[in-house]
């Protein structure tokens, strides 16, 4: 994709794909130290005794990196991507050495009556590992600006999903 | 809470609360650099032109830290907390200087027929800022071990939500 995508540029069924991003133990552990310090995210040795049988990435890291792939290499949304929320399912562990890619599809587009300068795109993103196994499905409500509203002033502190 | 909670120790309606965790610009920016490098998460100056009017935390950081509060200071689940997935809604921006706390409630408890050594607890966690405004609602499906299965072997590579 080239250029910046506004809500008017999206259509239901539109697809994006992007990759790859390699996962290593150092990055998995660094994320976990700050954000999700559980032993199966922190220590390859003690993680062997967990239900995963070894070190695995925090699901929040997989979620954030999947969105990063979408917006940096898949779909260049105008103004970046602002998530109002979403549903995430972690299907398989992500381990050091895994290489992730994403496939995304626009499921719904909703205009906002209260805020004509933006709308919500419901985008389903499946993250695959190097064996083409799905490791995560994230269906996110993304706030996307409209072309007609690109001159609008910052919205400040109001709820972002409204 | 003291001790380790197994699935048998949970009941629908049970509540946990925990806090506080302060957010500062340095931590917000460090998370964003690795995981969600958008300008409104990275640069307090340029973020002023965004719809947030200033620097805000990545929603994935809020989600991860809310779970961290739950498991480190709210509910000490046996074996840590393993998320099978969940639904997240970001209601308000989280800014430098904000202080977060969580309130959690057990909504459902589901035993697994295929895996008697564990079950799923559906736990709703609302994250509040220092003005008692909800900033996030996360309803997560957590894999919790059962007492009867605590001798079970690691499950290896199978899907974790099954």
Verbal overview:
The structure is a homodimer of 162-residue chains. Chain A is an alpha+beta fold and 162 residues long. Chain A has a single domain (7-149), classed as Hotdog Thioesterase (Thiol Ester Dehydrase, Chain A, Roll), CATH 3.10.129.10. Chain A has helices at residues 25-35, 39-42, 59-74; strands at residues 15-22, 82-90, 99-111, 118-128, 134-145. The first copy, chain A, has a five-stranded antiparallel β-sheet, with helices on one face. The longest helix of chain A is centred in the middle third of the chain and has 16 residues, at 59-74. The radius of gyration of chain A is 18 Å and the shape is elongated. The relative contact order of chain A is 0.22. The interface between A and B is large, with 51 and 51 residues.
- The strand count of chain A comes to 5
In helices, the fraction of residues of chain A equals 10-25%
The number of distinct helices of chain A, counting runs of at least 4 residues, comes to: 3
Oligomer: homodimer
Distance between the termini of chain A: 28 Å
Strand order of the largest sheet of chain A: 1-3-4-5-2
Following the backbone from N to C, one meets helices and strands of chain A in this order, namely EHHHEEEE
The CATH architecture assignment of chain A turns out to be Roll
Outline the biggest β-sheet of chain A.
5 strands, antiparallel
Explain briefly what this protein structure is.
The first copy, chain A, has 162 residues and is α+β, with helices and mostly antiparallel strands. Chain A has helices spanning 25-35, 39-42, 59-74, and strands spanning 15-22, 82-90, 99-111, 118-128, 134-145.
């Amino acid at each position: 994709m080239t250029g910046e995508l506004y809500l008017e540029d999206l259509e239901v069924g539109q697809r994006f794909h992007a990759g790859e991003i390699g996962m290593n133990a150092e990055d998995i552990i660094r994320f976990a130290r700050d954000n999700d310090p559980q032993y199966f995210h922190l220590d390859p040795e003690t993680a062997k005794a967990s239900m995963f049988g070894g070190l695995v990435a925090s699901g929040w890291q997989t979620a954030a990196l999947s969105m990063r792939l979408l917006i940096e290499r898949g779909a260049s949304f105008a103004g970046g991507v602002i998530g109002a929320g979403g549903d995430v399912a972690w299907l398989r562990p992500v381990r050091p050495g895994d290489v992730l890619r994403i496939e995304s599809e626009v499921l719904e587009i909703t205009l906002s009556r209260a805020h004509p300068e933006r709308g919500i795109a419901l985008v389903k993103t499946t993250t695959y590992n190097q064996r083409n196994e799905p490791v995560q499905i994230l269906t996110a409500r993304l706030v996307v600006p409209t072309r007609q509203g690109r001159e609008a002033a910052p919205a400040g502190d109001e709820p972002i999903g409204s």
